[in-house]
Amino acid sequence: MHKRLAHARVLLHCRSPYTTALAALTDATVHLICQNTVRFFNRVAIDAGFTGIADNDAQGQRLAASFGNRHVMMMGNHGITVAASSIAQTFDDLYFFERAAKTLMLAYSSGRPLAILGDAAAEKTAAGWEACQGMAVAHFEQLKAMLLAEDASFASWQYGCTIASGFNTRRFNFKGAQI
Known about the structure:
Strand content: 15-25%
Order of helices and strands: EHHEHEEHHHEE
Strand order of the largest sheet: 1-4-3-2
CATH superfamily of the domain at 10-132: Class II aldolase/adducin N-terminal domain
Oligomer: single chain
Largest sheet: 4 strands, mixed
Distance between the termini: 24 Å
Shape: globular
């Protein structure tokens, strides 16, 4: 996917509960009902072609094509994948998309009609979020600081996580040191 998506320096995929529930609906539209949902106005691709585990190049090509020029892709019956230029921005989009999906699913559960915002307000708000890209780094650093304060032992774990960035895959511990 990195080869086909110029904006995908970092890709993160997860199956968070509210996003996955939204992705499992026949209409997975992210309706414009709050500040978190409008953050993603015209910025989400929806891939409804889930065929099982992506275990071959053809599936990767199909997924990359589904992304188009968007940086968030909701994967029908599956979850979400986010592509961005940094780990912090990618995580921030995952975090706020899950918040948006939670609000939307809770609103659906009321059984009452949704109060949908207009496109102009949605685009203005989404553009405002994009203007605050530096906030993602501050958010990510604050979350790491909170985790360190709660249990500093995670910083020395040698198994950390694998980050696919650009064309290279690297392993990092949770302090950010490459291992």
